[in-house]
Amino acid sequence: MPGRHGKQVKKKNRSKRQPVTEMETTLKDSIHGRTRKERSILSGLIPPAVKHFSKKITISTTLPMFQQAPVPKAAAVQQPTPAPEQKTQPKKNKK
Question: Are 8 and 14 in contact (CB under 8 A)?
């Protein structure tokens, strides 16, 4: 990368603009509907939200939803036949 070849370095001028005050930012935020400043102010004053805890419930197995439904007599007579079991041949070991 080439150098400066003897040229003088000029200092950058600083901006003469005044820094924005807190009142101006709050005013701008309220105009545009932003709640940034209000949140930062109120965050220390408002206590944290209360978390509601629910009680643990034990489920009884005697409830009707855990009981087997009664089978009607017509369905009890017509029982499906079980499928025949297939015999599998033992695998041969390769040596």
Answer: no
